[in-house]
């Protein structure tokens, strides 16, 4: 058995670095921290994990959208309204699960993203 200390990054594939930079940098307001000189890999920081955007096709791999990550926001309805105003499409209505609110959408490359907030303790 190995010892896992934490999750350092979540890889997210892209075909269009400029569009995905707009999504994660401008629309979500995340800070870009690292980029390879050929833009095959670049990173955006959240408070607890790095989102590693990469171009699989430039490395000879097939592009397959990520199945999803959940990002915590202060207010799901407000975040959803702002993203929809920027052209982000959501998959159905906002869900109240009994412990949280969540709304599912996709970034500009089709990667699944969940805008999420647990009820206050």
Your description of this structure?
The protein has 121 residues and is an alpha/beta fold. The chain has one domain: 2,3-Dihydroxybiphenyl 1,2-Dioxygenase, domain 1 (Roll), CATH 3.10.180.10. It is 17% helix and 33% strand. The chain has a 4-stranded mixed β-sheet with strand order 1-4-3-2, with helices on one face. It is globular. 17% of the residues are buried.
Summarize the model shown.
The protein has 121 residues and is an alpha/beta fold.
Which descriptors would you attach to this protein?
four-stranded mixed sheet; alpha/beta; 17% helix; single chain; globular; 2,3-Dihydroxybiphenyl 1,2-Dioxygenase, domain 1; 121 residues
Chain-wise SSE layout:
Layout: E1 9-13, H1 17-27, E2 31-35, E3 41-45, E4 50-54, E5 69-72, H2 76-85, E6 95-96, E7 100-106, E8 112-118
Parallel strand pairs: 1-4, 5-8
Antiparallel strand pairs: 2-3, 3-4, 6-7, 7-8
Instruction: Kindly give the count of domains.
Output: 1
Number of strands: 8
Category from helices, strands and their pairing: alpha/beta
- Round the Cα radius of gyration to an integer and report it: 15 Å
Straight-line N-to-C gap: 34 Å
* Global morphology: globular
Main sheet record: 4 strands, mixed
Order of adjacent strands in the largest pleated sheet: 1-4-3-2
Q: Overall mean pLDDT score?
A: 94
How much of the sequence lies in strands comes to 25-35%
Q: Ranges with pLDDT <50 over ≥5 residues?
A: none
The second-level CATH architecture is Roll
